[in-house]
Amino acid sequence: MEGEPTLRLRIFDLNCWAIRYLSKRRRERMWLIGDKLRQEGFDLVLLQEVWSEQDYSDLRVKLAGCYPFSHYFRSGVIGSGLCVFSRFPILDTLLYQYSLNGYPYMLQHGDWFCGKSVGLSLGVTALLLSLSVQLHAEYCREKDAYLPHRLVQAWELAQFIRHTSKAADVVLLGGDLNMHPEDAGIRLLRGWTGLRDAFAEATRFEGCKNGCTLVPDNCFTDKSELLPFPLGIRIDYILYKAISSFTVKCEELKTTTGPAPGTDIPFSDHEAVMATLHIQRQGQPVGATLGTADLALVDVVAEARTEVGVGLRAAQRQRYSAGRMAVLALLLLLLQAVAALGTVAGLGTEQPFPKLSFCLLALLALGVLVLATGLHVFHTMEVKMLHGTEDQMWMALRALQERP
């Protein structure tokens, strides 16, 4: 980089939708993704939802010639699904798992089990700090029960970037953020970190209309979820910013459109995002910036804090309900214990219930007690995380309002 006025960096980002046993034609699609990456020769590849380590290992072997450096980020029960491939050496890696990530009892969604995270890799090229990320899915926009969790994740991601990027020259973030461009979480992330959207900044664009990455024409997408959005939605992003004595410009942005070349299937249920960035050294270092400290940022932090507060009150209600259920189950067990002791001591002429029914009722009460106690503990932790984030946002909001 020292001997060149400009570095041209090509990035590939894709949510691979590679869930073992569940994703359609997973093995075939992963092979096609590997072919695409080997043919195109990108500089940096950021992948999400590579849930099988075997898929990652197969990709690593296949791409060893053109991407000699790679890393797989492990977290949660089934893994984060995040991995990165690079032409340049990876100096260091770090995984941060969000404090809130859905609910363990929502088995049909499963986000809690995968441990949604942000994977950071520090590259030697212009001290490039690259992040592969995925936030909690939306599932239902009209009744989005996960909005507070996703806002907490966006806030933690923004804080993570601010505190880890101080030694870097360029920050690059790619991933499935599960938020529309105008959503509060995206505006909070961009405003608080100063990250720029490659789609909005690109000199040239080629691909799906409006840069959408989840489109109705894709044979793997759930068409019912996209009924309000006939053109699709844009939830996959490449964001970037220069921190020290560098500038970054997006020369070109592309998305895939439809099936992979020569096949009848697309690479994933998401479209891939491909950006070409120009990184250039300037004369004087400009230092790190907080972001745009204006009324728009104040408004978005206030809006996000309000939504987190709504989630906090909902979590407090759920904690109260779970605690009350646990207390009732415990009282029922105590009453049964007293009745059983009375029968053993001969205080009663006969057992009030048939023995089998008595045992089944005791088992049921014990099961409810264990489940309710577990839910009470979980929602107590949720309340603390939401309350902590609300306090952090209040401090940030006050600091922004007091700035000249």
Give a brief description:
This protein has 8 helices and 13 strands. The model is unreliable at 286-292 (pLDDT under 50).
Describe the structure.
- A hairpin with a 4-residue loop joins strand 6 and strand 7.
- The chain is α+β, with helices and mostly antiparallel strands.
- The chain folds into two domains: 282 residues, 4-Layer Sandwich (Deoxyribonuclease I, Chain A); 111 residues.
- The strands form two sheets. A seven-stranded mixed beta sheet has the order 3-4-2-1-13-12-10. A six-stranded mixed beta sheet has the order 5-6-7-8-11-9.
- The protein is built from eight helices and 13 strands.
CATH architecture assignment of the largest domain: 4-Layer Sandwich
> CATH top level of the largest domain?
Alpha Beta
Return the structural class.
alpha+beta
Number of domains: 2
Contiguous helical run count: 8
Shape field = globular
Strand line-up of the largest beta sheet: 3-4-2-1-13-12-10
Report the oligomer.
Answer: single chain
What is the CA–CA distance across the termini? 38 Å
Please give the largest β-sheet: 7 strands, mixed
